[in-house]
Amino acid sequence: LQLVESGGGLVQPGGSLRLSCAASGFTFGSNDMTWVRQAPGKGPEWVSGISGGGAITYYADSVKGRFTISRDNAKNTLYLQMNSLKPGDTAVYYCARAPWSLIKVPPRDYWGQGTQVTVSS
Hints:
Blueprint: E1 2-6, E2 9-11, E3 17-24, E4 33-38, E5 45-50, E6 57-59, E7 67-72, E8 77-82, E9 91-97, E10 115-119
Parallel strand pairs: 2-10
Antiparallel strand pairs: 1-3, 3-8, 4-5, 4-9, 5-6, 7-8, 9-10
């Protein structure tokens, strides 16, 4: 299982970023996937989940209406489009395989290495 996130960076409040996660080592299209984030000094927070085929998506209340999860199974890639970013969105963002639930933080063994998102003026 290998998950490699990219697309993080420094953005001003109100700005946008698109995160990508390249997957390998497993049958990507057959697996539900999630995005998890962890802010400094805090525990991991589930952000969003998507079913293997992409038809079912869920969002945490804190990002609903601002973030969009999607996937391209032909490219083995997961995405997170983040709009109207706030300072409270600052965290390391991880993509993760979701072996049991689309709406919970998966075990750490299923996460990628993460990409830093910093929202600041």
